[in-house]
Amino acid sequence: MDEELGKLQGEWNVVFLEVEGLVPAPHTYAGAKIVIDGDQFTSIAMGATYGGKIAVDAGTDPKTFRMTFTDGPEKGKRNFGIYELDGNRWRICLTITGGAAPTEFATSPRSGRALETLDREKHAGS
Question: How confident is the model at residue 97 (pLDDT cuts 50, 70, 90)?
């Protein structure tokens, strides 16, 4: 497994969300998470479960990733994004309507982008 992808393994809880310039109330994304297991991801958000493959490229600035959906409502689609990883905090900005990866960590109305901050889930004894 790619060393960078190895750093993303585990369960990540969404602690902040902004979609196309709007910040929804925290209760709307309560319980939302992304689980990375090898090169597979499962995303649980707002009543739906999505699954597929994730690939990362740490050789770019900012670092980029691609999510290819094989299960759930987005099956057959790809989302492209950028990310920063700081220990147990993962910040991503990704396309939600197709198109090229964002170049900055920002969204705006009709941008087709989401900005998320995720914290690694801590388990008892870890």
Answer: confident
Place of tokens 């109330």: 25
In terms of DSSP H, where are the helices of the chain?
3-7
The CA distance from 26 to 4, in Å, is 29
Instruction: Give all domains of the chain, ordered by start, each with its CATH number.
Output: 3-120 (2.40.128.490)
Q: Of the candidates 49, 6, 13, which has an alpha carbon nearest to the alpha carbon of residue 29? A: 13
Per-residue model confidence as pLDDT tens digits over 41-95: 999 988 899 999 999 999 999 999 999 999 999 999 999 999 999 999 999 999 9
Q: Is 43 helix (H, G, I), strand (E, B) or coil?
A: strand
Residues 6+ away with beta carbon under 8 Å from 26: none
